[in-house]
Amino acid sequence: MSEKGRLNLVNGTNQSWQLTSSSSTKLKTWDFPQTIAAGAQGMCTIETEGTSSDTRGDATYTLGDTLFTILIQLVMQDGKVTLQASWNGTEADYVVFPPAMAEVPSAIGWSKDGTVAAGVFTLSTAPIPPVAGTGWTSDWFGIYGRCLAAQKLSALTIPGTHDSGSYGISKPNKFTKTQDLDFNGQLSAGVRYFDMRIGYQPEYDDANRFILVHDFAKSVTLLDALGQITSFLAQHAAEILILDFHRFTNFASDQPDDDSNFPYAELTYWIGKGLGPLAYAIPSGRNAADVTLNDIYATSGRVLVSFNVDASVYSNAAYIPPITQVWQGGDKDWNTPDAVPKFFSCVLGQVTEDCPGQKPVAIPQNQIWAMMAAINFPPLQPPEVLSPDLDNLVYGGSEWSQECNAIATDFIEQTALVSNSVCTSVMKGTTLSS
Fold first, then answer.
1. Looking at domain 4-134, which of 2.60.270.50, 2.60.120.10, 1.10.10.60, 2.60.40.420 is its CATH number?
2. What is the mean pLDDT of the chain?
3. pTM as predicted
């Protein structure tokens, strides 16, 4: 069976790329532009004839009048299509995405019927050395630190998960479980924004009173989740996370969804106990949207915590203000094949006919915000059956990817959201720093 996908090549340098060689075996389409101008992007269409082990493609670009070359390859691994990049000449003053791997090609990935990205960018400081091993998504803040550290957190494109804790629901129906990876798995995959829904069950002892939920479906304890987070950060000290607590459910209350009935102070205590010095406190007088990675790196903190409730109900000076969450929904039926593209065109394109009630949703300004539930599943199907819409909308370097801050999706490992978001963040960082 053939597979089709797209690769967006992002030229973030001041010289053009020239295609110097291209060949393919058992590919229907291996379409690479001859030239990609300085500061431009080139979309490539790729389609296989089948899944033969000798299916392959090679395309080499040379960067201007330098000795820097970019080799893009398609190979079959265990019957699956894989795209990879090799960068020759990284001693030049450039940074590459995906990051250069020590002695092996860098895995770009593949999105069936979707889009992935790769790029080369001008860097004003020393080049980023090759990365040992293949798990670069565990350390992408650290790897691209020189590109990103001076940037505001609110300016980056950050991959996230919707209903981040739902992986642990013991008896899920087809709509309550929206993640298969636990927190360690999501963190290792590159997720840095987490949708944290919390339930309170006072009949349990202190350590188990707070659990992660999806509506009334119960998952793992909060302390289990925080334990995974702190263990991960102990091994990946440059990574920065956002925990967005909302949808507070008090199982002991006659009105479990009433925010005013929730024991926030007790929850704050257990968050503090679980995170310890890893919890980042916003300096007095600072706007959370203006906080840079360098500001955070100057402290022991690595985790930004937000309670998404009105300050009249509860506020904590150490937490960042409630994060604006932009949702599909309202009075419009989003359960259609083009739901996700319409959602993005409403919020980012401000196309009124694609919005609930034909009222545009304002893009949040000067704050950390999240595009929520970009779940991209076909109509009347559970979210396990994903479509490529999200990958085709926010591929690395796309206009809409550049507009977004955090993006939260279901089943993160079935999308190219992480690599596409990181590619766009690197593009933003190098563009603003050069």
1. 2.60.270.50
2. 88
3. 0.93
